[in-house]
Design goal:
- The chain has 118 residues and is α/β, with parallel strands linked by helices.
- Helices cover 27% and strands 20% of the residues.
- The longest helix is centred in the C-terminal third of the chain and has 14 residues.
- The two termini are 18 Å apart.
- The relative contact order is 0.19.
Protein backbone atom coordinates (compact mmCIF):
# COMPACT_ATOMS: atom_id res chain seq x y z
CA UNK A 1 0.00 0.00 0.00
CA UNK A 2 1.15 3.54 -0.74
CA UNK A 3 1.04 5.72 2.37
CA UNK A 4 1.76 9.33 3.30
CA UNK A 5 2.25 10.23 6.96
CA UNK A 6 1.12 13.68 7.97
CA UNK A 7 3.52 15.89 9.92
CA UNK A 8 1.68 15.11 13.17
CA UNK A 9 2.65 11.43 13.01
CA UNK A 10 5.97 10.11 14.38
CA UNK A 11 8.67 9.85 11.69
CA UNK A 12 9.66 6.45 13.12
CA UNK A 13 6.33 5.12 11.90
CA UNK A 14 7.49 5.52 8.31
CA UNK A 15 10.35 3.10 8.97
CA UNK A 16 8.02 0.62 10.68
CA UNK A 17 5.44 0.69 7.87
CA UNK A 18 8.13 0.41 5.21
CA UNK A 19 9.53 -2.64 7.01
CA UNK A 20 6.01 -4.12 6.82
CA UNK A 21 6.19 -3.80 3.03
CA UNK A 22 4.40 -0.51 2.47
CA UNK A 23 5.61 2.33 0.23
CA UNK A 24 5.69 5.08 2.85
CA UNK A 25 6.62 8.74 2.59
CA UNK A 26 6.06 11.68 4.89
CA UNK A 27 4.93 15.28 4.68
CA UNK A 28 8.32 16.56 5.97
CA UNK A 29 10.22 14.51 3.36
CA UNK A 30 8.31 16.34 0.64
CA UNK A 31 8.83 19.81 2.15
CA UNK A 32 5.11 20.10 2.91
CA UNK A 33 5.57 20.84 6.63
CA UNK A 34 3.43 23.81 7.59
CA UNK A 35 1.68 23.90 4.22
CA UNK A 36 -2.11 24.28 4.17
CA UNK A 37 -4.10 21.06 4.49
CA UNK A 38 -5.53 21.36 0.95
CA UNK A 39 -1.95 21.36 -0.42
CA UNK A 40 -1.05 18.25 1.59
CA UNK A 41 -4.28 16.54 0.50
CA UNK A 42 -3.74 17.41 -3.16
CA UNK A 43 -0.17 16.03 -3.13
CA UNK A 44 -1.36 12.89 -1.33
CA UNK A 45 -4.07 12.28 -3.91
CA UNK A 46 -1.75 13.00 -6.84
CA UNK A 47 0.61 10.32 -5.47
CA UNK A 48 -2.27 7.82 -5.04
CA UNK A 49 -1.57 7.44 -1.31
CA UNK A 50 -3.53 6.75 1.87
CA UNK A 51 -3.09 9.70 4.25
CA UNK A 52 -2.50 8.87 7.92
CA UNK A 53 -3.16 11.86 10.15
CA UNK A 54 -4.42 13.07 13.53
CA UNK A 55 -5.55 16.40 12.05
CA UNK A 56 -9.24 16.97 12.76
CA UNK A 57 -9.45 19.13 9.65
CA UNK A 58 -9.66 15.78 7.84
CA UNK A 59 -12.48 14.44 10.04
CA UNK A 60 -15.49 15.63 8.01
CA UNK A 61 -16.75 12.53 6.21
CA UNK A 62 -18.95 14.73 4.01
CA UNK A 63 -15.86 16.47 2.65
CA UNK A 64 -13.77 13.27 2.52
CA UNK A 65 -16.53 10.97 1.31
CA UNK A 66 -15.48 7.32 0.87
CA UNK A 67 -14.77 6.60 -2.76
CA UNK A 68 -13.82 10.20 -3.56
CA UNK A 69 -10.15 9.77 -2.61
CA UNK A 70 -7.36 7.18 -2.30
CA UNK A 71 -7.87 6.60 1.42
CA UNK A 72 -7.77 8.42 4.73
CA UNK A 73 -6.83 7.02 8.15
CA UNK A 74 -7.73 9.41 10.95
CA UNK A 75 -6.03 8.42 14.22
CA UNK A 76 -7.97 9.50 17.32
CA UNK A 77 -6.28 8.32 20.51
CA UNK A 78 -7.03 9.35 24.08
CA UNK A 79 -3.28 9.17 24.73
CA UNK A 80 -1.60 10.32 21.50
CA UNK A 81 1.95 9.93 22.78
CA UNK A 82 4.59 9.13 20.19
CA UNK A 83 4.93 5.57 21.48
CA UNK A 84 1.18 4.93 21.61
CA UNK A 85 0.73 6.28 18.08
CA UNK A 86 3.43 3.94 16.80
CA UNK A 87 2.01 0.95 18.68
CA UNK A 88 -1.63 1.50 17.66
CA UNK A 89 -0.96 2.15 13.98
CA UNK A 90 1.57 -0.69 13.75
CA UNK A 91 -0.86 -3.09 15.40
CA UNK A 92 -3.62 -2.12 12.96
CA UNK A 93 -1.33 -2.60 9.97
CA UNK A 94 -0.21 -6.01 11.22
CA UNK A 95 -3.67 -7.36 12.13
CA UNK A 96 -6.09 -5.74 9.67
CA UNK A 97 -6.56 -6.17 5.93
CA UNK A 98 -5.36 -2.64 5.29
CA UNK A 99 -5.29 -3.22 1.53
CA UNK A 100 -9.09 -3.03 1.69
CA UNK A 101 -8.88 0.50 3.10
CA UNK A 102 -8.22 1.91 -0.34
CA UNK A 103 -10.77 4.66 -1.08
CA UNK A 104 -12.14 4.34 2.49
CA UNK A 105 -12.50 6.74 5.39
CA UNK A 106 -11.03 4.93 8.41
CA UNK A 107 -10.96 6.05 12.05
CA UNK A 108 -8.58 4.31 14.45
CA UNK A 109 -9.06 4.55 18.22
CA UNK A 110 -7.64 2.49 21.07
CA UNK A 111 -10.86 0.48 21.18
CA UNK A 112 -11.83 -0.02 17.55
CA UNK A 113 -11.41 0.68 13.89
CA UNK A 114 -14.34 2.16 11.97
CA UNK A 115 -14.23 1.78 8.22
CA UNK A 116 -16.54 3.70 5.93
CA UNK A 117 -16.44 2.13 2.47
CA UNK A 118 -17.54 3.61 -0.87
Amino acid sequence: MKIKLDENMPATLATVLTACGHDTDTVPEEDLTGKPDPDVWRKTQQADRLLITQDLDFSDIRQFRPGSHHGLLLVRLVNPSRQNLIEQVTSAFKTEAVETWRRCFVVLTERKIRIRRP
